[in-house]
Amino acid sequence: MMSGTQSTVSVIIPTRNGGRRFGEVLAALRRQSRAPDEILVIDSGSSDETLDLARQYRARIITIDPQDFDHGGTRSLGARSAVGEVLVYLTQDAVPADPEALEHLLASLADERVAAAYGRQLPYPDASCFARHLRAFNYSEHSVVRCFEDRARYGFKTAFISNSFAAYRRDLLAAVGFFQEGLVFGEDTFTVAKLLRKGYCVAYVAEARVLHSHNYTLSQDFRRYFDIGVAHVTKSELLEGFGSPTGEGRRYVAAELAFLVRENQYWRLPESMVRSAVKLLSYHLGKRYTMLPMGLARWCSLNRGWWSGSHVKRR
């Protein structure tokens, strides 16, 4: 099997009003030591300069209606339309941090066990302490390869990946049906869970770095974790055998408190505890979304368009 650096490579970026930062993404891709063979943009109704920037950088463009956007389905559309043997997914605000980012990510696919790989996400300079800790907790300085048999060690995190910057072998991705459609959240992790069960592995490549972070408000945290709860209950069978996310959540809370102490941000400790309580509450509320009136469930969600689909289990 060819390594990622020898294979043809398509970079796939779903967009909607990416703005100036999307231009930074495209400029950074142009500077890569291993240039992609194709940049494929799937745009769902941009009204800003996004499409002009894509044309400027000679990206191939597919346009879809905003209501047709689906985290898994749109990325599967990109996979089926791309020319590459290796598919690299970026989000419109994940900027490669150096010219070797893509090369490092692709090099991990030289290991024939590895079906997918993802890079390290670094916080932007304006990131809050909570955003910086989230990146530090999920993306360490040390690379690792995780396989299905490692779940006793890594638990729920065994199947973790982020399509903000991730590479997949196209043939293996096709063998599991590309990405699951109709998910409110987590199409990347559910797909990796399938690949792990087939005997493949996922690589975390710390040397492959992008700048990517969000300063979520308390309301956004509530809605994000509500969606995570919905995703975990609607497709619970895909994550069976990987343990419960509860243990990982406890480790995260303890790590954030320790991080704030190290940063001498003691005055943020009460806010951290409030945020953690809100996340826990909204996660469990999301797992019980079928008990809520549909209008309330939609209001709680960050991805409100998802709730009009036929995939939603009604009360």
Can you offer a commentary on this structure?
Helix 2 links the parallel strand 2 and strand 3 (60-63). The mean pLDDT is 93. Helices cover 41% and strands 17% of the residues. The protein starts with 8 loop residues before the first strand and ends in a 15-residue tail after the last helix. By secondary structure, it is an alpha/beta fold. Strands 1, 2, 3, 4, 5, 6, 7, 8 and 9 form a nine-stranded mixed beta sheet that branches. The protein contains twelve helices and nine strands. The chain has helices at residues 19-30, 50-56, 71-81, 101-107, 129-138, 151-154, 170-175, 187-197, 218-234, 245-262, 269-287, 294-300, and strands spanning 9-15, 38-43, 60-63, 86-90, 95-96, 114-122, 144-147, 165-169, 201-211.
